[in-house]
Each structure stands twice: as C-alpha cells, then as structure tokens.
C-alpha cells in the first residue's frame, strides 16, 4: 500500500508447519539424542513495516515482526554445552525490529542495517537450548561496494553482533576482484582483525583468513 509517492506501507501474516526430521527423531551420537515422540512444529508470523525513498540515492526500510511457535523443535540440556536431546518447546515467542538504509551514487553503494530481537519461552528454569536461544539480540552491518582504479571492484563489510548472555564481537571482511568476460581473479580477506568468537558454544569459528581465487564464466 502506498501512503505517499515516496512512502510505502506493508503488512503480512503467514502460517507454517514443520514435521520433525529423521535426525531429530532417531539419530544418536555422544553429543545428540533423537526423540521419536516429537510433535509437529507450527507457527504464526506477523510483520508490518515501511519503505521510504527521500531521494533517488537513498532508500530506507524498517520492519517490526513477531513470531509465535508452538511445539517448537530444538535440542535441550541441563548444561550449556550439552549433551543434547531433541524436544518440543511448548511455546516460543520472538519479537524483533529490522531497519536498513542504502545510499547509491556513481557506482558506489553504502548499506547500513540493524536488527534487534527478543525471545520468550515456557522452558523450565535451568534448561538450555542448542539453537532457539542462541540468537543475536543486537546485530549491525555497514558495507561499501564500489569501483577502484585498474578496473577493480571492491567490497568492505564491518559487522557487529551480540548474542544472548554473551559478549559482543565485530568482524571485518574485504573483497577485491577484477571482472573479466571469461576469467575474473579475486582476493578475499575474512575476519581481518583475527577476532575469536563462537556462534555455537564450544565451537570456535575460523580466525583471520585469505582466499585467492579465479572465477570462470561459461556464458556465451
């Protein structure tokens, strides 16, 4: 729905269902135990937001969303690092806000985004989940894409993230490429600051890395 020539309002609602997978039902290893009694997961999702373009160069969006899960499927444990057993969580509710701004001019694009998320559940005290409550409560990204002398295309990205009950961290990535009709060499740097972080407790993510590659295009 358009509220003004440069302003667009929107809203949506959806219903979803998910059957437990074979792994969630029957798989077993020293760290994970399936559960053949799992129930089907269901959810309702609602969102509303607006898109605003104050000029040809700028685009701004914001969205407020809410999701209500019933019999959500996850792995639970009495310890933060497992071992884990598949289980249904009777009620999971998530509410969040997502905003983004983009500026584009003369071959340069600058993007900013921020997301905040909060979750509530009916889990008993002292029960940990492997995935549901390992979410980022705050995350932001700033990126730039543009052209450099020598027919180089560059992209820089800086992202900061704070997961629930854990310390925040930031990651800096850089990408350089020289596009060509058939062969396009590229150079990619990830986690340039060498930050030590874990997306899942107990699983260390890679540190500083550099990748040199060649992209082949088979298009006529």
> Helical segment tally?
1
Roughly what percent helix? under 10%
Radius of gyration: 22 Å
Can you give the mean pLDDT?
Answer: 91
Q: Write down the domain tally.
A: 2
Q: How much strand content do the residues show? A: over 45%
The rough form would be described as: globular
The overall strand count is 15
Question: Biggest sheet, in brief?
Answer: 13 strands, mixed
Unreliable parts? none
The termini sit apart by 41 Å
Provide the structure class: mainly beta
- The arrangement of helices and strands along the chain is EEHEEEEEEEEEEEEE
Q: What would your notes on this structure say?
A:
This protein is mostly beta strands and 220 residues long. The protein folds into 2 domains: 1-133, no CATH class; 138-220. 2% of the residues lie in helices and 65% in strands. It contains 1 helix and 15 strands. It has one helix at 22-26, and strands at 2-4, 7-18, 32-33, 41-52, 58-77, 84-105, 108-121, 128-129, 136-148, 152-163, 169-177, 183-190, 198-200, 203-204, 209-216. The strands form 2 sheets. Strands 1, 2, 3, 4, 5, 6, 7, 8, 9, 10, 11, 12 and 15 form a 13-stranded mixed β-sheet that branches. A two-stranded antiparallel ribbon has the order 13-14. The model has no long low-confidence stretch (mean pLDDT 91).
Annotate the secondary structure layout:
Blueprint: E1 2-4, E2 7-18, H1 22-26, E3 32-33, E4 41-52, E5 58-77, E6 84-105, E7 108-121, E8 128-129, E9 136-148, E10 152-163, E11 169-177, E12 183-190, E13 198-200, E14 203-204, E15 209-216
Parallel strand pairs: 3-6
Antiparallel strand pairs: 1-2, 2-4, 4-5, 5-6, 5-8, 6-7, 7-9, 9-10, 10-11, 11-12, 12-15, 13-14
């Amino acid at each position: 729905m358009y509220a003004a020539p440069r302003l667009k309002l929107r809203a949506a609602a959806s219903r979803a269902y998910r059957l437990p997978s074979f792994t969630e039902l029957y798989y077993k290893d020293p760290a994970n135990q399936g559960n053949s009694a799992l129930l089907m997961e269901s959810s309702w999702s609602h969102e509303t937001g607006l898109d605003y373009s104050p000029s040809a160069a700028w685009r701004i969006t914001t969205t407020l969303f809410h999701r209500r899960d019933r019999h959500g499927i996850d792995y639970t444990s009495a310890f933060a690092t497992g071992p884990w057993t598949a289980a249904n969580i009777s009620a999971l509710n998530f509410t969040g806000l997502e905003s983004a701004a983009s500026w584009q001019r003369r071959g340069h694009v600058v993007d900013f985004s921020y997301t905040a998320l909060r979750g509530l559940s009916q889990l008993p005290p002292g029960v940990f989940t492997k995935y549901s409550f390992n979410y980022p409560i705050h995350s932001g990204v700033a990126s730039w894409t543009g052209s450099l002398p020598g027919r180089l295309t560059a992209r820089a990205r800086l992202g900061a993230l704070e997961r629930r009950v854990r310390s925040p961290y930031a990651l800096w990535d850089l990408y350089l490429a020289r596009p060509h009709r058939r062969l396009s060499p590229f150079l990619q740097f990830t986690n340039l600051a060498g930050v030590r972080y874990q997306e899942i407790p107990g699983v260390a993510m890679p540190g500083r890395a550099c990748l040199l590659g060649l992209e082949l295009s088979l298009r006529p």
